[in-house]
Amino acid sequence: MVINNYYNITSCYGAKWSKDEGFYYISNKSGVNQIWHKDKEGNETQITFFTERIFSLNMTPNKQDILFTMDAGGNEQEQIYMINNSKIIDITQNSSARHQYGGMKPDGKTIVFASNARNPKNFDICEMNIDTKEVKIIIQNEDSYNIPAELSPCGNYLLYNKLKAQSDNCLWIANLQTQQAKNIDPTSENAMYVSPAWKKNSQGFYFLTDKGSDFEYLAYYDMQTGKIIKVYEEKWGIEKIKLSYDDKYLAMQINRDGYSEIEILNTTTNKLISIPSAPKGVMNYFGMNWDSNSYKLLFSVTTGTRPTNVWLLDLENDLIKKVTTASLEGINKDLLAEPTLHHYKSFDDLVVPFWVYKQTSEVSPVIIDIHGGPEAQGRPMFSPLTQYLISQGFTIVAPNVRGSTGYGKAYTYLDDIEKRLDSVKDIESLVKYLVNNNMAPKDKIAVMGASYGGYMTLACVANYPDLFAAGVDTVGMSNLETFLENTAEYRRSHRETEYGSLEHHRDILRKVSPIHKVDEIIAPLMVIHGANDPRVPVSEAEQIVQSLKDRNVPVEYLRYEDEGHGLSKRKNQLDCYPKVVEFLNKHLNK
Description:
Blueprint: H1 2-7, E1 12-17, E2 23-27, E3 34-38, E4 44-46, E5 54-59, E6 66-70, E7 79-84, E8 87-90, E9 99-104, E10 110-115, E11 124-129, E12 135-139, E13 145-151, E14 157-165, E15 168-175, E16 180-183, E17 193-198, E18 204-209, E19 217-222, E20 228-232, E21 237-243, E22 249-256, E23 259-266, E24 271-272, E25 282-290, E26 296-303, E27 306-314, E28 319-322, E29 340-345, E30 351-357, E31 366-370, H2 384-391, E32 395-399, H3 409-412, H4 420-436, E33 445-450, H5 452-463, E34 470-474, H6 480-486, H7 489-499, H8 506-512, E35 525-530, H9 539-550, E36 555-560, H10 570-588
């Protein structure tokens, strides 16, 4: 099958230096994300062999042992594990709770993490002695979603985010000795404080914020004075930062019009230094990692036609190179499409960016692929599904409608609560633009998306039934009211800031929910969902499927019992996506 070639393409990311001058990383070479190691001679070895996905990878302070998190069946109830002398130890041993790793103290025995074991609705900041398994609650939380950010090198302070909303993310300091916590900027509202990087003496840290600005900039917090100083900013947002072992260089990952670019700041002069150029693409969310005694930086990058690989930037030798082996073996590279960036004006003259993935100059059936989030961004990165669909003769159009990130805070807020359907109007305007500019045949346009993109798919076919020949909804919400009632408890409050609250906005939630316009849907629909989804319960899929069946609207439903919020296992991807292509061919190429 053609699809096997695309889903045998692997990815490598999240690299961490090991004690032997090699590094560990996460890869799906085995069919699901596992931990691999590459030594200094270049030999690559698989370290874990689970059938479940590895979420995150970290090293102990001595760089000798591995700490990682893993869930089961896509339920996102992450447990913390340790690999010590090749022995794998389940540290947290509580599958009914979610655990988010925060760091290990210099003693090599105490881990810091957030957990909702005490109350499923909230995450407490906790410590555990890995020998005795004794858990101590350091900061008990009753009012928000706490996410660990960075443990200080001395082990006495944990920075963590109190997540009020997706873009309202205040940063707190927990003193792990006194068990007291404080907000680094108690006057701030509706601002992000993310990606902190401690100085090695633990007397201060750099971080990113968009307080008083439309974009995230670099700032510094002094522990002694409590003062915040702006250090570096530009007209685009900075996404991630990392300090070198001696605090001399600070690596910045900057999102410039959807592309990631690395800049290195000399912290003594506050000037950027000259470095070799990295591939023009998108850097992995898991960020960057400096060597502990040199100016060597590991990071991951992908482009539209290159799978994610780990790269090395070596400042001392002025070089940059790829250091893992995810490849395009079995694929005709000439059939891959690097996206091009375009813009159009929506119904209210808002300028909306969109990417086009296209194999030839001929006008072909179009799939409008809407990203999730909604506070996320469609970017020029490799997707096996996108390239597979292109190989089957489709053009992929990926818009960043209002509400997307990457274009400033004001743009992100344009679809909140009562403005929800304005983003759906953006898609109507996009369809008109594509047709009027001979970029899409009027009767051969489909819409698809996952998570919030799935909601948008349903909203599009419900609100503009005559525009679409078909829709593919993956783990999307059909009813925002029941979604908020049934999503994981700890997610509800910060999701309500985006969609509206159950207490105050039920009328709006009903107005914008596709389930209440199901009688308008005429386009054939394919619905895909994981049975264990903790974010968007599978009931969201089943109520829209049943409603369409009751009206004899063509609907196909794929339910995967061992998946959660999306398809993470290759066997399920290989089962699902040929069926998606068959469905789209049936309704777009008729």
